[in-house]
Amino acid sequence: MEGTVPDDFELMWGDLRPLGRSASSGGYFRQPFTSPERELVAWFLEQAEARGLRVESDDFGNIVAWWDTGSGPAVLTGSHLDSVLDGGAYDGPLGVVSALAAVDLMRSRGVVPSRPVGVSVFVEEEGSRFGLACLGSRLATGATSWETARELQDRDGVRLGDVVVGGSSSLLADVGTFVELHVEQGRDLVDRGAAIGVASEIWPHGRYRFDFTGSANHAGTTRMEDRQDPMLTYAMTALAANKQARLAGQRATFGRVAVEPNGTNAVPSRVTAWMDARCATDAGLSDLVEAVTRQATDRADRDGTTVEVTAESVSASVAFDSSLAAALAADHEGGDWPVIATQAGHDAGILSAAGIPTAMLFVRNPSGVSHSPAEHAEIADCLVGVSALADTLERLTR
């Protein structure tokens, strides 16, 4: 459909750019229920009020701003505002800003949707504070119970139940379709020369904690052959994960490590490391984790250490509604949008698994880099994304 994107997108993006940004790295620290993330939420509420949208929230911190037009099952869009540690600007906020701008664009076109339209902000999507990815959407759908979630702790030992009231959620009760716009976290669209893509599936993925235990000792007086050093067991496990993932054409990353007592002149007594693993199939994920665990255990036996593996968060594969994806991708100026898979987890995957027909739109990322200050999307592509989202919402609310 024809229409121009109002200047609101660039104005809103300018508002968000400085919030939670590190002066040294240029990355973002927008962890849930911290000051920068709360400032973003306050900004969102102001934007909703300025547009006359009705705001609804649940007991977990999730928010929806409703454009109350028409009747029947609502169409929900939006994303999240939190970030990974030292993350990029676009992962999450792009979907929220684009959703508000899409409402503006639809109104400028004179569109009056026949169904209600909501703009959502799900809390703690990244799992960067309390360790469970897509926590807000899991709680909103009932995929995770409050009884379990309230005991989650951040790195300072603060419980989720200490910062959130908790209870229940009815935000999704009347939602018939969910569409999430997101910056692409790879190079598929770059390689295809396309600004917009539609998701076909999300790879299964999980976070696994490896606890390696040995014996603390003096770094100088303890002979190498007399050590029970868990750092050696961890180091071999990290290399094994890399090798197994490469051989299988999958993904495995140790990105977080904690060492005790963490002294330069001491053999450590304990190393705790977290592995992120992602595979094309559920069986492949299980096989990869099993292979890495087996090699870690074998190495621990040789090192005189022990290893225990705990699955902290596992998300099964998600196949988005193929007919919905095909319908949204078809018949656009310049041709059909490509339909592509993603290896990143999203709130859309949680809502889809809960039985809500769901689709995702991706905006091209010229660098292919994400979860990093180098994450980027050109403003021109972002504006194409706003138009694409507005077109999509129009199709779904006719």
Describe this structure in words.
By secondary structure, this protein is α/β, with parallel strands linked by helices. It folds into 2 domains: 8-203 and 317-396, Zn peptidases (Aminopeptidase, 3-Layer(aba) Sandwich); 205-315, Alpha-Beta Plaits (2-Layer Sandwich). It is 34% helix and 23% strand. Strand 1 and strand 2 (63-67) form a beta hairpin. Helix 3 crosses helix 12.
Summary tags:
398 residues, alpha/beta, Aminopeptidase, Alpha-Beta Plaits, 9-stranded mixed β-sheet, 4-stranded antiparallel β-sheet, 12 helices, 15 strands, 23% strand, elongated, Peptidase_M20, Allantoate amidohydrolase, hydrolase
| Number of H/I helices | 12
Structural class: alpha/beta
Low-confidence stretches: none
CATH superfamily of the largest domain: Zn peptidases
Count of extended strands: 15
Question: What percent of residues adopt helix (DSSP H or I)?
Answer: 25-40%
Output the helix-strand order. HHEEEHEHHHEHEEEHEEEHEEHEHEH
* Reported CATH architecture of the largest domain: 3-Layer(aba) Sandwich
The shape is elongated
- Taking the alpha carbons of the first and last residues, their distance comes to 13 Å
Write down the domain tally: 2
Overall residue-averaged pLDDT value: 94
- Report the major sheet: 9 strands, mixed
The percentage of residues in β strands lies in 15-25%
Pfam families: Peptidase_M20
Cofactor: Zn(2+)
Family: Belongs to the peptidase M20 family.
GO molecular function, one term: hydrolase activity, acting on carbon-nitrogen (but not peptide) bonds, in linear amidines
